[in-house]
């Protein structure tokens, strides 16, 4: 079932890719700005952007990291990100539920407008926690209905910012 969901999401974003910035660029830019403002005082050896889309966050945050990995399901989005990327960025096609990154290796993880409060959320947040080092900084937005619980990983949120009636960005630092 999840594999079919991934395929549908990838196909939707492959189709949307040519007009993505026109449709969502301004909205995403304000989210990226909030994340950059939160993490701007830090520099990261390895940053991962899960759901990197056309790579606009990676491009605008490039002064904050030594090396970055952009991950997305959509090959068309990754092709758009490739046009923006610097030499210190790699791009990988993958799902947030199976991140092809070794344990405890990431200093900062960003995931904007990717996660939903649905059955796949537990697997995605577990993967994010698995790849992050102790004291890693996470900036993760979550689409959810107000009656849904915030997942355990995000319960330790240091700061959160409501972006819309259905999306909140959670900022946290892993303690263990």
Quick overview of this protein structure:
By secondary structure, the protein is an alpha/beta fold. The protein has helices spanning 2-16, 20-39, 56-60, 75-84, 121-131, 152-155; strands at residues 44-50, 65-72, 89-93, 106-116, 132-143, 159-162, 167-173.
Report on the structure:
It is a single chain. It contains 6 helices and 7 strands; from the N terminus they run H-H-E-H-E-H-E-E-H-E-H-E-E. The chain has one domain: 3-Layer(aba) Sandwich (Rossmann fold), CATH 3.40.50.150. Helix 3 links the parallel strand 1 and strand 2. It has a 7-stranded mixed β-sheet with strand order 3-2-1-4-5-7-6. With 176 residues, the protein is of the alpha/beta class.
The rough form would be described as globular
Q: What is the averaged pLDDT score?
A: 84
Q: Provide the structure class.
A: alpha/beta
Distance between the termini: 32 Å
Secondary structure elements and their pairing?
Elements: H1 2-16, H2 20-39, E1 44-50, H3 56-60, E2 65-72, H4 75-84, E3 89-93, E4 106-116, H5 121-131, E5 132-143, H6 152-155, E6 159-162, E7 167-173
Parallel strand pairs: 1-2, 1-4, 2-3, 4-5
Antiparallel strand pairs: 5-7, 6-7
Which key phrases capture this entry?
single chain; 176 residues; alpha/beta; Rossmann fold; seven-stranded mixed β-sheet; 6 helices; 7 strands; 37% helix; globular
């Amino acid at each position: 079932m999840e594999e079919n969901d991934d395929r549908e999401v990838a196909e939707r974003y492959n189709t949307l890719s040519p007009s993505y910035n026109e449709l969502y660029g301004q909205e995403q830019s304000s989210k990226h700005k909030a994340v950059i403002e939160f993490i701007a005082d830090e520099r990261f050896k390895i940053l991962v952007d899960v759901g990197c889309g056309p790579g606009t966050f990676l491009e605008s945050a490039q002064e904050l990291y030594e090396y970055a990995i952009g991950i997305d399901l959509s090959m068309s989005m990754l092709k758009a990100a490739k046009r923006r990327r610097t030499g210190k960025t790699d791009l990988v096609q993958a799902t947030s539920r199976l991140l092809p990154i070794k344990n405890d290796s990431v200093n900062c993880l960003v995931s904007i407008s990717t996660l939903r409060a649905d059955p796949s959320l537990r697997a995605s947040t577990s993967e994010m926690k698995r790849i992050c080092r102790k004291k890693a900084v996470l900036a993760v937005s979550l689409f959810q209905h107000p009656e849904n619980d915030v997942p355990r990983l995000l319960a330790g949120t240091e700061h959160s910012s409501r972006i819309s009636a259905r999306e909140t960005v959670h900022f946290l630092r892993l303690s263990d």
